[in-house]
Design a protein that fits this description.
Largest interface: A-B, 57 and 80 residues
Largest sheet of chain B: none
Mean pLDDT of chain B: 92
Shape of chain B: globular
Number of strands of chain A: 9
Mean pLDDT of chain A: 83
Distance between the termini of chain A: 73 Å
Distance between the termini of chain B: 16 Å
Order of helices and strands of chain A: HHHEHEEHHEHEHHEEHHEHHEHH
Number of strands of chain B: 0
Number of helices of chain A: 15
Low-confidence stretches of chain A: 1-25, 412-423
Helix content of chain B: 55-70%
Low-confidence stretches of chain B: none
Helix content of chain A: 25-40%
Strand order of the largest sheet of chain A: 4-3-5-8-9
Oligomer: heterodimer
Order of helices and strands of chain B: HHHHHHHHHHHHHHHHH
Structural class of chain B: mainly alpha
């Protein structure tokens, strides 16, 4: 079919270059047509309908076959006050987040992670029964609820076994609001037996709220829950997950360049093992927001006061990121003296008479030995702590608590099974 | 919102489509299309909907003024100048303020004056260059009597905010859509269903399968232009040449297809531009809607080719300079525009020599000239442009690019289509069942890529 477009080849000498921007003749009217049985007018809309069904419906079905990070599955349909869906038991192969998100081939492996939630929608601590917990660990996001760790490897579990008390894992997901309303709900269900709390401040996590918060209204609280609920479902499309995996396989650096590898900076231990560092952790370490330390300390002080009103003594654990601990040596920047946000923050907390343990101090002291021996406290390809690192930290916290006058309550700890307790 | 996104394909388009055809009256359909246009635009940043609304109100009011004071030359002059000034001031502020500041600062530094004006860091509203042109063409056409302005605000709002061409063109003049808008309540839904989806599918494949795949390879490579070998640099610039074409032509084809789905005839915007024989021919084929606007509203009013030769050259150069500046607030765009203006002027002068060569030589030479122009277009700075040109023109050792194999295959496919295939308007868009199924399979591949990759905006969004 020829159109004025094809006839206009520019070969006519009459085509004046001065009139370079020539009026285009309108294309001839296009005859209307009727869609035939196998026309694109039917096939493509049908394809979209089928695709939409394949996108939406499987989100509600079982997802274990996708071998996702159990945390992802657990936050689908979270409880009203709990971060996860209640009474789940999941097992998934370990996949380091740094390597996975930067689309680099993994070089670090461990046995599959067992992820269990209790009837309240929190991570199960095998050593704590839900009704009687003497201690509670909250804040700290994925460090506290134990990303890349099995149930008995999480910080609250290990701390509890070291202290000989039931320690409840109140770790919430990143981005969840931390409110007194939620804390009261939880403490009531723990039978009012909690006397000690450890607030974990993870430096790699997003900045905390600044200042003393006001209580949210019921509507705000419901809205926050609705957002969490939708978030859980939104990320759970099998067709999207498989499409992303397909795209990542194509763009892993063999066929097509890896568009995600900028997210990490690879370094190596003396024994040749690769260690991945988040680029944004390095940037945060390079330019810490020291000015916000005071405001954030006020937020922590608010928690201390709220818990004190509930007869609970709170201590704070400051957690550095992998970059802060090992970055100076791994990146060859040991000589660069940099004021750490955690050190400034520690001072602010001490000024407010809040008991605080700054893990950065101890970890930096042993960083050189850790690197030379290849025994880091973090996973090499994940930003989270490995079981050995959690144990070290729990020992330090247990010692710190004892030094600050903590005493175990009379009741003995018994190991509990994962039973579905009624709320 | 992007055409190549899940939210558009699975939510926005079906809802907009079915409600549109459910509504019966003209005004209801105008209002619905205008409202969905604002939702489409506001998905990116709701605040800038107010800007578009303001521009719409100003131009609509001017149109009413033309109707009311059709006999008063003075009033008509004001109604021409004031709204266009308002539109250009908005465009100038949002798009060129920081560019102007950088020019002033450079001049001050050159004069040895240390003080520097601070940059305003203004967010550029997506598509402002396009919808501003829509309103300006409406005002000028109303002034010239080429159209009768509409009294129906909803009709005009629908025209300005029609989502299919809102953020990246084609620049559709009111007179080109007027008949469709007037007949909007008499359209038959099934009339252009096949054609609309065919155009849309062609555009989506051009964008997602060709342009985006090329981008995956060349974008990281071009970030390190000073490390590329000459061969790698040529591959990258060839890649960009085809990427830009298939990205933009893909978007335009999708816009055309979407127009058909709602009974609108969006005009052709690309007519196989890489088959062009000379600069003049190129601008009859590339971004046709823009070149027509430049011709009708700038080149001809400047005098066109009616005066002495030197004036014609001046008019060509000025028109293309402004065309370059329209693309972006950076010297590389200005120089690119001047480059094409110079090509047009030189061709005008030596057309008889140029046209004497065999057509394949003309096409090859023109394509080479276009590649050099795109090098300026793509460069992020002068230094970047220098590094690229150095490698294109002189032999350099350096790194090859990751994905060169895939890129080579994509370049072959792209070249076959661009240089030898029909344009989308030359296709009949009536497919055999086998071809329709093959296109559907490729459409599914597009969906997989859309879901799997981070969303890739259209290159012309930045303009």
């Amino acid at each position: 079919m020829t159109t004025p477009a094809t006839q206009r080849s520019g070969s006519s000498p009459a085509a004046q270059p001065g009139a370079a921007l020539v009026e285009q003749t309108a294309p001839p009217p296009i005859a209307a047509d009727r869609p035939s049985r196998w026309s694109l007018g039917r096939l493509l809309p049908l394809t979209l309908v089928v695709w939409a069904v394949l996108d939406v419906l499987p989100r509600f079905g079982p997802l274990e076959w996708l071998e996702l990070d159990p945390v992802q599955i657990a936050q689908r349909a979270p409880e009203r006050y709990g971060p996860f869906k209640a009474n789940l038991r999941l097992q998934a192969p370990y996949a380091g987040t740094e390597g996975r998100l930067a689309n680099v081939r993994p070089e670090e492996f461990r046995e599959p992670v067992v992820f269990t939630t209790d009837s309240l929608g929190f991570r199960l601590s095998p050593f704590a029964a839900e009704e009687q917990a003497a201690a509670l660990v909250f804040g700290g996001f994925s460090f506290t609820f134990g990303s890349a760790l099995s149930d008995d490897e999480t910080f609250p579990s290990v701390l509890g076994s070291m202290l000989g008390v039931r320690t409840y894992n109140a770790g919430r997901f990143q981005g969840d609001p931390e409110t007194a309303e939620e804390m009261d709900w939880l403490l009531n269900r723990l039978g009012g037996t909690v006397r000690t709390a450890v607030y974990v401040y993870a430096d790699a996590a997003p900045t905390k709220p600044v200042g003393r918060p006001t209580a949210p209204t019921e509507a705000e609280s419901l809205y926050a829950y609705a957002k969490r609920y939708v978030r859980g479902w939104r990320m759970m499309s099998p067709i999207e997950i498989l499409s992303v995996r397909f795209h990542k396989a194509l763009t892993a650096g063999d066929l097509l360049p890896n568009e995600l590898d900028y997210k990490v900076v690879p370094t190596h231990l003396p024994n040749g093992d690769r260690v991945l560092l988040w680029r944004n952790e390095i940037e945060a370490w390079d330019a810490p927001d020291l000015a916000s330390a005071g405001g954030q300390a006020e937020f922590i002080a608010w928690w201390r006061d709220e818990l004190k009103r509930r007869n609970i003594e709170m201590s704070v654990l400051l957690l550095p990121s992998k970059t802060e601990v090992y970055g100076p040596m791994l990146l060859g920047r040991s000589s660069v003296v940099k004021e750490s946000f955690l050190n400034v923050f520690e001072t602010e907390l001490q000024r407010r008479e809040i008991p605080v343990l700054n893990a950065l101090t101890e970890l930096r002291a042993s960083a050189a030995r850790d690197i030379s021996q290849g025994t880091l406290s973090f996973y090499r390809e994940d930003s989270h702590w490995n079981p050995e690192g959690v144990s070290r930290l729990a020992s330090a916290v247990a010692a710190f608590l004892r030094e600050n006058g903590w005493q175990a309550p009379p009741s003995k700890i018994t190991s509990t099974s994962n039973r579905a307790n009624a709320r | 919102m992007l055409f190549n996104s899940a939210i558009f394909l699975l939510a926005f388009l079906p809802i907009t489509y079915f409600v549109f055809w459910f509504l019966r009256s003209k005004d209801a359909r105008y209002i619905w299309l205008a409202a969905t246009g604002y939702v489409f635009y506001g998905y990116w940043n709701p605040k800038f909907c107010l800007l578009m609304l303001f521009s719409t109100l100003v131009s609509y009011t001017a149109g009413l003024g033309f109707l009311k004071w059709s006999e008063s030359a003075r009033a008509r002059k004001y109604l021409l100048v004031v709204p266009i000034t308002v539109d250009l001031l908005l465009l100038g502020y949002f798009k060129y303020a920081d560019f102007g500041i950088s020019i002033v600062n450079s001049a001050m530094e050159a004069a040895g004056v240390p003080a520097a004006l601070p940059f305003l860091r203004i967010i550029l509203p997506v598509g402002i260059s396009f919808y501003t042109f829509h309103t300006i063409t409406y005002i000028v056409d109303s002034y010239r009597g080429a159209i009768k302005p509409t009294r129906n605000f909803f009709e005009f709002a629908c025209y300005v905010s029609l989502f299919s061409q809102l953020v990246a063109g084609p620049i559709v003049r009111f007179r080109e859509l007027q008949e469709d808008l007037e007949q909007i309540d008499h359209k038959d839904r099934r009339s252009y269903l096949d054609r609309g989806w065919s155009f849309f599918a062609v555009g989506l494949m051009q964008k997602v399968l060709i342009a985006d795949t090329i981008a995956l390879v060349i974008d990281p490579a071009l970030k390190q232009a000073d490390q590329l070998s000459s061969a790698a640099a040529w591959l990258c610039m060839l890649g960009y040449t085809y990427q830009l074409y298939f990205d933009f032509a893909g978007y335009s084809n999708m816009a055309v297809g979407l127009g058909f789905l709602f009974g609108m005839h969006i005009p052709i915007n690309f007519d196989s531009p890489y088959k062009a024989l000379n600069p003049s021919d190129f601008w009859r084929r590339w971004h046709i809607s823009l070149s027509r606007c430049l011709k009708d509203y700038l080149y001809v009013p400047l005098g066109g080719s009616r005066g002495p030769e030197w004036l014609t050259y001046r008019n060509l150069l000025l028109t293309m300079l402004i065309g370059g500046l329209w693309h972006g607030a950076a010297w590389t765009f200005v120089i690119w525009g001047a480059y094409h203006g110079a090509l047009l002027a030189v061709y005008r002068r030596f057309a008889s020599v140029w046209d004497g060569f065999p057509q394949w030589i003309q096409r090859a030479a023109m394509f080479l000239l276009v590649i050099f122009g795109w090098t300026l277009f793509r460069a992020e700075s002068w230094g970047h442009a220098e590094a690229l040109f150095a490698r294109l023109l002189l032999p350099h050792d350096g790194t090859m690019i990751v994905g060169a194999g895939v890129l080579s295959v994509m370049l072959l496919i792209a070249a076959s289509i661009a240089h030898f295939g029909p344009s989308s308007f030359e296709l009949k868009h009536k497919w055999t069942p086998a071809t329709a199924f093959a296109i559907t399979a490729l459409f599914i591949l597009c969906l997989i890529r859309i879901y799997g990759a981070t969303n890739s905006p259209f290159l012309y969004f930045q303009f």
